[in-house]
């Protein structure tokens, strides 16, 4: 049986291997992706939230034949722009609704072209169905506990934060955290814990102690920071979860800037354009309380809005920033960037066959433009990095 330190060292070695792999692929980098612009309207005041919902840490959806036929249909411009509208929840409990427009017909058509992936059950090479050992764990558990100052405070693990409702988030700016929408809103109302939402930063126990040896086996401490503003897309709030799962993301603005490194966002490329075809994420899985858990796996399938994979995960990992190594045209090198948000699990029941996946919401060009506007408050700053 491997000791915790051996597991941490192995995880570190795996990360080093991931850094070397893109060097062999640098000549295959994809062309730049056009990012459209969103034109926000003046916010409209809404009634205060009742905070009546209960936090759901294990989002599981079911997609049947009706979901299959809906996936084949093109999304109308009016319907998509309505889903890109968003609610803003403030610390005092007040909230507003902001509607948006997509700038130019050409921008809308380019985005639809970028999203033109066939649904996973229509693509060739779909994996055969298999029996899972445990819910959201596929075969042997491939997760690694991240421990010790050298790992918890190192990038990219240092970008993972806890959400007080029981989920995970990822730092995407000096004052913003990206997480799953279902961690703060159940689709009808904000969860009770969103009334005084907080974000937790891990602090290794040895930071404030000279007794490193004695503290090395203890759980990390957590420093909590209050959330100033929460934004949720209307696509999550309106409609059943098998539809709104495509919009299962939210942005939290902290009261004060943090001093840790953050991970930049990117439009999710095709899995063929990800270094090693792999995704990674670190979260606070409920079966390992107080521990940061890292995992990586290949992309199994992808649709216009979802990334289907078999990365091992348990409740609490929802909201983790899913990242991969993507080509950065401005820096002319491969960089780790957030390309999605881990949402949960989905059962696909198509043509009498059941398939199951863990699912992440992919950041499309329009979603990138929306989240970027939330971060900067200025659409002119929202271009693909």
Low-confidence stretches: 22-27, 121-135
Give the DSSP E fraction (strand runs of 2 or more residues). Answer: 25-35%
- What class would the helix/strand composition place it in? alpha+beta
Query: What is the global morphology?
Result: globular
Report the radius of gyration as a whole number of Å: 20 Å
Major sheet description: 8 strands, mixed
**SSE sequence, one letter per element:** HEEEHHEEEHEHEEEEHEHHEEEEEEEH
Cα distance, first to last residue?
43 Å
Tally the helices: 9
Helix content: 10-25%
Total strand segments? 19
Task: Average the pLDDT over all residues and give the rounded result.
Answer: 81
3D structure, described in words:
This protein is an alpha+beta fold and 385 residues long. The protein is built from 9 helices and 19 strands. It has helices spanning 4-20, 65-72, 77-83, 105-114, 149-152, 212-215, 234-237, 241-244, 365-376, and strands at residues 38-40, 44-46, 60-63, 86-90, 95-98, 100-102, 144-146, 160-163, 168-171, 176-179, 198-203, 221-233, 250-254, 278-283, 292-302, 306-309, 321-328, 333-350, 353-362. The strands form 3 sheets. Strands 3, 7, 14, 15, 16, 17, 18 and 19 form an 8-stranded mixed sheet that branches. Strands 8-9-10-13-12-11 form a 6-stranded antiparallel barrel. A hairpin with a 3-residue loop joins strand 15 (292-302) and strand 16. The termini are far apart.
